[in-house]
């Protein structure tokens, strides 16, 4: 069975890895398991098998065991998710938001069970540290959306020349992000229906509607909406929604003062 | 010091209570503490002091200690909150939703820290049971809102003659409820500003806008909106919002196909 000629390369699992490479390899294996199973259901043995290493080696890198490994994997998923929000500030803002949502929904799709377990809470591995990681992602998401609305959020660096978002606009964006999270969980519950592109379209419509409703009573949001509209096109999300909403709004004509006066 | 004449009545703490009365008294005391402090920061000694009883008596009623007492107090708060959603199905639907939100925001105000700690997660007393209690309240809230939209949700009893809500409408209502929760937490973070009535007005506007945006692409929601509009008045929330949104929508006229054709 042994031959001196054409010896195969040593199996990959036994390749000598640097500390950083080994850590990254363990995290990738852990994330693969945590993505599709509730954290409480993933054992360190499985992580070791998935990474092709021994259990003691997993403990050498993560002496805190599953809890520490879960938090590290979550941190790495959070970094990956935060990268999804990065989008160049060019073109119609609703189309930028649509591209961000496409990447976000792809992430949700690829981390389905882990995403649900994390956001639903009640897990034994949930701690104030895991909550802090999730809150960091929410803050990054809010900052990204505010930047496409031409404002800066409370947590990013304060660049000069760009205005800080006021309290109502910040509340609006953070509420919408909570609604997006809720819709994502429902989407997973319902077997990923409707198709991701349809859900994304509705979430963009939701943001546009929320901007319009908030502009009605908040001067800052009204000014943001005026600036945005100049960048939108008739065949983009805002144009399509405006066209579809006109018949709905037309049915509300009797609510307007002039209609009442004509009664 | 002892006198046979005019003996004072025995102090209230020593009054003989039935098992049910005693349990209720302990829950009221616990809820008072859990409402304004994080559950991890409330000790059983404090609950005993607040109720005017001994620590062993608290343990006799709640042998599981703080965890059991917290879950019972949470269940009792959940019942109280669910009662807030009950609103007769008469008058303009947006005004019914406004009254429900007024009661809900009063509850949030009265249980501020406990409400935040619960929804923010990461608490050591959070379990799958506490998550189930919170989910039950969310389901009850969704059912209540759907009933004011003339539909029944998935979790209530199926009454004849009323249509079940379709998937998009249910997702819309549940997303809005998540947004209301997020806005409530932000409201508490920002020292309960803006005033509750102003926040409530914005949350109603948010629901109306979401209904209009969803009606644009979902036939069932469009039919719900047509039925609702017939019940609304020009001086109610829908009328006021319609009046305020018209100037905002007017600025989007260039997005509409006929405006493009005229270019």
From TrEMBL, chains A, B:
Record PROSITE patterns: HTH_TETR_2
| A Pfam family the protein falls into | TetR_C_46
GO MF terms listed in the record are: DNA-binding transcription factor activity; transcription cis-regulatory region binding
Under which name does UniProt file this protein? TetR/AcrR family transcriptional regulator
Superkingdom, according to UniProt?
A: Bacteria
PANTHER family xref list:
HTH-TYPE TRANSCRIPTIONAL REGULATOR RUTR, TRANSCRIPTIONAL REGULATORY PROTEIN (PROBABLY TETR-FAMILY)-RELATED
Q: Which residues bind DNA?
A: 43-62
InterPro entries given for it? Answer: DesT_TetR_C, Homeodomain-like_sf, HTH-type_TetR-like_transc_reg, HTH_TetR
List each copy of the HTH tetR-type domain by range.
Answer: 20-80
The record's keywords, sorted A to Z, are: DNA-binding, Transcription, Transcription regulation
Mind telling me which Gene3D superfamilies this protein's record contains? Answer: Tetracycline Repressor, domain 2
SUPFAM superfamilies assigned: Homeodomain-like
């Amino acid at each position: 069975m042994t031959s001196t000629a054409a010896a195969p390369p040593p199996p990959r699992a036994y390749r000598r890895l640097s500390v950083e490479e080994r850590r990254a390899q363990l995290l990738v294996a852990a994330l693969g398991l945590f993505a599709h199973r509730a954290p409480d259901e993933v054992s360190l043995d499985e992580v070791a098998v998935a990474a092709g290493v021994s259990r003691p080696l997993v403990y050498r890198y993560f002496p805190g065991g599953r809890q520490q490994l879960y938090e590290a994997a979550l941190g790495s998923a959070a970094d990956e998710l935060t990268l999804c929000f990065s989008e160049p500030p060019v073109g119609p803002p609703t189309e930028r938001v649509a591209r961000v949502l496409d990447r976000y929904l792809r992430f949700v799709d690829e981390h389905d069970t882990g995403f649900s377990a994390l956001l639903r809470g009640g897990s034994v591995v949930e701690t104030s540290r895991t909550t802090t990681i999730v809150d960091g992602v929410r803050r990054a998401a809010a900052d990204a959306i505010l930047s496409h609305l031409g404002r800066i959020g409370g947590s990013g660096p304060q660049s000069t020349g760009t205005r800080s978002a006021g309290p109502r606009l910040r509340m609006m964006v953070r509420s919408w992000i909570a609604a997006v999270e809720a819709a994502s969980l429902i989407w997973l519950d319902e077997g990923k229906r409707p198709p991701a592109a349809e859900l994304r379209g509705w979430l963009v419509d939701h943001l546009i509607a929320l901007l319009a409703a908030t502009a009605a009573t908040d001067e800052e949001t009204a000014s943001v909406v005026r600036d945005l509209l100049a960048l939108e096109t008739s065949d983009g999300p805002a144009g399509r929604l405006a066209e579809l909403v006109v018949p709905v709004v037309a049915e509300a004509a009797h609510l307007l003062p002039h209609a009442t006066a004509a009664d």
